[in-house]
Amino acid sequence: MITWMQRHKKWLVITIWISTIAFVGAGFVGWGSYEYGKQGGVVAVVGDREISVDEYNQEYSNLYSQYSRMFGAMFNKELAEQLKLKDVAYRQVLQKNLVLSYADSLGLDVTNEDVAKELVKYDAFLKDGKFDKETYIKVLGQNKMTPMIFEDSLKRNILLQKVQGLFEINPNAVEVESLSKLLFIEDDISIKILNSSDVKIDVKADELKKYWEENKNSYMSEVSYDLEVKEIPLMSANSSEDDIKAHYEKFKIDYKYEDGKIKSLEDSHEQIIKDLDEKFTKTEALKVYLKVKKDEEKFETKVSYKESTLPYSNENNTKVLETKEGEVIKPFFENNKYLIVKLNKKNVSQPLAFEQAVSLVTKDYENVLKSKKLDELANTQLKDFKGTEISAISRESVNKISGLDQKEASKFLNELFSSVSKEGIVKLDSKVVLYRINNSKFGEYNKAKDDSVKKTIIQLQEEELMTNLMKKLENTFDIKSSVQEKE
């Protein structure tokens, strides 16, 4: 995932034009890895604009939240560090303030009316469909913010939008039609597909061992965990009828039929007893847990699990993964019993011995040899190959290429229409496609595609416009930074 995210980072970050204030209702991620200069709460000055620590942290929090929403539980602070999101956020906040300084130089301003119109767009601040000041202050307080800090962010956002309005792009009909014909150009081609399964190779023992030596860090053991476990089976609470009735009256909304209607006390009786027993057992398990921690009671079983074979629920497995060596985890419920688990040792991943990795190494090395031989074969045949002729191929012709699945065909077509060569080679996972373009013609104009073509034009023009604007602004406004990144 890291490699993919690094490769696509420029598309994942919040753009200069879009400055959504996403931290309301979503928590706040602290910065915590930069030192600030003598100016205290100011991390940089762009033109006449001071960038505060709060603004700086908000930018990082928004960026962090964006990645977190995209990748869910896979994303964490360690990955954020590897991707240098803090550096990205710092560059973004500088760029935004360059644009804001430009807005100042044009005399653009944000009025109280502008702010009021934005505030009513946040559902979190509404009560009975109307903006409510008490709700507004309460929600901000829950997110460790004040109205002044939030409204300053809002003003910056509004001002950025006003600058954006100055550069709105609206392609005309001639531009859309011309680019549409170019985007959907059609080629008549000849292709020949070479498959690695048709290539014969000879794997030599000494070369295989050498390949492993050079790549041994790619063949690692799985992280494993040495645990001690104590089980506390479900115990009977010997609940009286009064206990059962009292529990039902307190929690009866939890006992429902499939249609959502609340069950009677009689129909809920068996489940209530189970719930009371579980609650009783949890209390007993906590007593045992305290004794185990004081070494007054011993664990019963020693086990070792690879990370992929931890036998508990996802939630309970996570508790094991996040525990430090020597720590005892509070009792958790699993398969009608409470478990107390101690992590004795976390066995880190190590390079596998050749004998342990030989099957994986052999498979990978065979693929390397086949790929190399396939490349040699493709380069030998390219100049005078005789292949299958296909007419009127466009970027959308994924179903017209026999011998390639849709994913392979899509990749081939993307490379074909990105190439400036009349003939060439496209490498797929286990295949190589030789191609020759025999004829090209502009695609037929299709008005139904206008919207997607217009978006493409706007994206290309905005990127070019933004690049040129930033170069101009960097040479116009002074940037003074009081941030020193830690090594």
Spell out the key features of this protein.
single chain; 487 residues; alpha+beta; four-stranded antiparallel beta sheet; 16 helices; 15 strands; 18% strand; disordered N terminus
> Helical residue percent?
40-55%
- Count helical runs: 16
How large, in whole angstroms, is the Cα Rg? 32 Å
Number of strands: 15
- Sheet-strand content, in percent, reads 15-25%
Q: The biggest beta sheet, please?
A: 4 strands, antiparallel
Q: Tell me the structural class.
A: alpha+beta
Dominant shape: extended
Average predicted confidence as pLDDT = 83
Give the low-confidence spans. Answer: 1-40
How many angstroms does the end-to-end distance come to? 25 Å
Q: What spatial order of strands do you see in the largest sheet?
A: 11-6-13-12
How would the blueprint of this fold be written?
Layout: H1 2-7, H2 9-12, E1 34-36, E2 42-46, E3 49-52, H3 53-71, H4 77-82, H5 85-106, H6 112-119, E4 126-127, E5 130-131, H7 133-142, H8 147-166, H9 173-183, E6 186-195, H10 205-215, E7 224-233, H11 241-251, H12 265-293, E8 301-306, H13 314-322, E9 328-333, E10 337-347, H14 354-381, E11 388-393, H15 406-416, E12 423-427, E13 431-441, H16 450-474, E14 479-481, E15 483-485
Antiparallel strand pairs: 1-15, 2-3, 2-14, 4-5, 6-11, 6-13, 7-8, 7-10, 9-10, 12-13
Helix pairs in contact: 3-5, 5-8, 6-8, 9-16, 10-14, 11-12
